[in-house]
């Protein structure tokens, strides 16, 4: 597992630290690239910048200033964006490409060792083995922060605590939405202007929903249903 000192540099596609990646898409400039619509360019401050961290996430992560994952975000620089986000670090700099320059040539993680530890912690907790759950969770946490209070104990570990750590560690890797669905969580973006943060104005049903919401799972294309009438629409 990457240490605190290794974490930021490990994501550089030109010199990646392979010890953490159990399976990843090996994208190189000489053979392939993720294109302008690839995940790296969508996230990057100097790319399309179509994705930003929510204020709730920023507040959660920055509550521990010693957490190395704070270094994975960049603040806005354009005047219009600064007016919205201020000095907050909202742009994820995890999939930054080779040498930090080629946003189209990025590491695409599929499974990382950190995810395995988090999954083991969750499984142990669900199996009522809090000692093992704490052990697996703290193996990760102590490699991300030096704040002693961030370590879990048998007395305070909860499923929510483990899932929060998954949010911090796996941000931008396509895990959070499915974690919420499988745990039947209610995804609440905001409830009023007071906690709206920098969210754009959303319809009421998009502000807060769970897996029973009819749009939570993508619809099956009509062509597939036409080809097989036994398929039922989601």
Automatic annotation (TrEMBL):
InterPro entries: SusD_RagB_dom, TPR-like_helical_dom_sf. It comes from human gut metagenome. It is found in: Cell outer membrane. Keywords: Cell outer membrane, Membrane, Signal. It holds the Pfam family SusD_RagB. This is Protein containing RagB/SusD domain protein. The keyword Membrane applies. SUPFAM superfamilies: TPR-like. Residues 85-234 form the RagB/SusD domain. One of its GO terms (cellular component) is cell outer membrane.
């Amino acid at each position: 597992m990457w240490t605190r000192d290794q974490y930021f540099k490990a994501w550089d596609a030109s010199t990646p630290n392979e010890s953490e990646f159990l399976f990843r898409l090996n994208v190189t400039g000489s053979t392939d690239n993720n294109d302008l619509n690839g995940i790296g360019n969508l996230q990057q401050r100097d790319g399309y910048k179509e994705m930003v961290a929510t204020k709730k996430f920023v507040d959660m992560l920055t509550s521990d200033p010693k957490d190395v994952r704070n270094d994975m975000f960049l603040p806005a620089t354009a005047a219009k964006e600064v007016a919205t986000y201020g000095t907050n670090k909202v742009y994820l700099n995890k999939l930054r490409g080779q040498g930090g320059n080629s946003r189209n040539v990025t590491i695409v993680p599929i499974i990382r060792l950190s995810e395995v530890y988090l999954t083991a912690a969750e499984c142990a907790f669900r199996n009522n083995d809090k000692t093992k759950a704490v052990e697996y969770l703290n193996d990760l946490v102590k490699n991300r922060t030096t704040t002693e209070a961030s370590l879990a104990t048998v007395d305070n570990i909860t499923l929510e605590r483990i899932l929060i750590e998954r949010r911090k560690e796996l941000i931008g890797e396509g895990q959070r939405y499915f974690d919420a669905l499988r745990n039947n969580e209610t995804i609440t973006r905001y409830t009023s202007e007071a906690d709206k943060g920098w969210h754009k104005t959303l319809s009421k049903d998009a502000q807060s929903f769970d897996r029973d919401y009819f749009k939570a799972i993508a619809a099956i294309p009509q062509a597939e249903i036409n080809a097989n009438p036994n398929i039922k629409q989601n």
